[in-house]
TrEMBL record:
Superkingdom per UniProt: Eukaryota
Source organism of the structure: Oryzias javanicus
Coarse class of the protein's main subcellular location: membrane
Classification of source organism: Eukaryota, Metazoa, Chordata, Craniata, Vertebrata
Residue ranges, compositional bias (Basic and acidic residues): 142-151
Pfam families: CLN3
InterPro entries found in the cross-reference section: Battenin_disease_Cln3, Battenin_disease_Cln3_subgr, MFS_trans_sf
SUPFAM superfamilies, per database record: MFS general substrate transporter
Keyword Transferase carried by entry: no
Keyword Metal-binding part of the UniProt annotation: no
Keywords: Lysosome, Membrane, Transmembrane, Transmembrane helix, Transport
Region Disordered, residue ranges: 117-151
Name of the protein this chain belongs to: Battenin
Length: 321
C-alpha cells in the first residue's frame, strides 16, 4: 500500500490521482498501526515505549528528509521516489530483524497458556525493568491462566471491552481532532510574508517542528506517565482555539513564536497517544488486550478524519476572505 501511494503521488497527472495516493498511504498506515499494536501484547509491555519513540522518530525523519531534499533543490516527485526506500526497509525489519516469540511461530493463533507468554519466550524485544517485572508479577497473581489473544471473545465480550475503552478513546480522539484541525486547517494560513522563507518552506518547517514535538513526548513514557488524559485534551483544544484566533486576527508577531506553539502542540499529541496505549495495556485484562489495543486505535483515526472534514470548510472560508 505504501509503495503504491508513493508511486501514485509521484507520477500523478491529475488531482484525483494524488488523492488516491494519499488514501492508499492512510489505509496502509492505519492497517499497520492496528496490526503492530495488536502484536505488541505478545511482547514485554515496555515494547510500547519503543513503538511510541519509533513512530515519533519516523515522523521527524520523514519531515526532515522531505524538507531537506526540497531545500537542496530536488523536485517533489524525485523526493517522493527517493522515499521508496522506506517501505522496503520496513519489510526487511519485519521479516529479518523482528524476532517473534518462539511460542508463536509465524504469529500463529494456537492456544498458548498465559503463563508461557509471561515467560522468557515473550521477552524477544526488550529487557524488563524492575517496574515492569513487578507489574508482570502482579498481573500473573490476579489473572487466570488464559490465552492473551482475543480470538475466543464473544460479540458481547467485545462490546463490553469497547465500552470500557471509551474513557481512553474519547480523550485520544478529541486530542487528535484538535491537533489535525490545526495541522490541516490553520498552519498553512499562518504565513509571514516578510520572512526569508517562502510560504511553502514555512509550512514544511511547521510540520517538521510538529514532528519533533511528537517524537520527544512519545519517547518520554519511561520518565513521565500521565493517567489523566483529559488534561491533554483540554490543553490541545485551548491550543486549537488560540491558533484559530491567531488566523482570524493575525496578532502573532513572529514565525519563531509559531514554531514554539507548534512544538507544544506536538508534545500534547504525542503524550496523549503513548500514554493512552500504555494504560490500556496496563489496565486491560490479559485475554482482552489484543482486541483492546486494536479497537482503541480507531479513536485517533476517527479524530483525524473528522478534523480533516472540519478543516476543509474552515480553510476554504479563510481563503475566501
Amino acid at each position: 500500500m505504501t509503495v503504491a501511494s508513493f508511486l501514485l503521488v509521484s507520477f500523478s497527472s491529475a488531482v484525483w490521482q494524488s488523492i488516491l495516493g494519499v488514501i492508499f498511504a492512510s489505509f496502509g498506515a492505519g492497517l499497520g498501526e492496528l496490526s503492530f499494536l495488536s502484536l505488541s501484547v505478545f511482547f514485554n509491555r515496555s515494547v510500547l515505549e519503543g513503538w511510541g519513540s519509533g513512530t515519533g522518530g519516523a515522523g521527524v525523519a520523514g519531515a526532515l528528509l522531505y524538507s531537506g531534499l526540497i531545500q537542496a533543490g530536488l523536485s517533489p516527485r524525485v523526493t517522493v521516489l527517493v522515499m521508496l526506500v522506506v517501505p522496503f526497509s520496513m519489510l526487511i525489519s519485519y521479516w529479518c530483524l523482528l524476532v517473534p516469540p518462539p511460542s508463536l511461530p509465524q504469529w500463529s493463533r494456537k492456544e498458548v497458556p498465559h503463563a508461557a507468554l509471561g515467560s522468557e519466550e515473550e521477552q524477544g524485544l526488550m529487557e524488563e525493568s524492575e517496574e515492569d517485572k513487578e507489574e508482570s508479577e502482579e498481573e500473573e497473581e490476579r489473572s487466570p491462566a488464559v490465552d492473551r489473544r482475543s480470538e475466543s471473545l464473544t460479540c458481547r465480550e467485545k462490546k463490553q471491552v469497547i465500552k470500557g475503552l471509551l474513557k481512553f478513546m474519547f480523550p485520544l480522539g478529541l486530542v487528535y481532532f484538535a491537533e489535525y484541525f490545526i495541522n490541516q486547517g490553520l498552519l498553512e494560513l499562518l504565513f509571514f510574508p516578510n520572512f526569508f522563507l517562502s510560504h511553502a518552506d514555512q509550512y514544511r518547517w511547521y510540520q517538521t517542528t510538529y514532528q519533533f514535538g511528537v517524537f520527544f513526548s512519545r519517547s518520554s513514557l519511561r520518565c513521565v506517565k500521565i493517567r489523566r488524559l483529559w488534561i491533554l485534551t483540554f490543553l490541545q483544544w485551548v491550543n486549537a482555539a488560540f491558533l484559530l484566533l491567531a488566523v482570524s486576527f493575525l496578532f502573532l508577531p513572529s514565525f519563531w513564536l509559531v514554531l514554539v506553539i507548534i512544538f507544544y502542540e506536538g508534545l500534547l499529541g504525542g503524550a496523549a497517544y503513548v500514554n493512552t496505549f500504555h494504560f490500556i495495556s496496563k489496565e486491560t485484562e490479559s485475554r482482552h488486550r489484543e482486541f483492546a489495543m486494536a479497537a482503541a486505535s480507531v479513536g485517533d483515526s476517527l479524530g483525524i478524519a473528522l478534523a480533516a472534514f472540519a478543516a476543509f470548510f474552515v480553510h476554504r472560508y479563510f481563503c475566501s476572505l
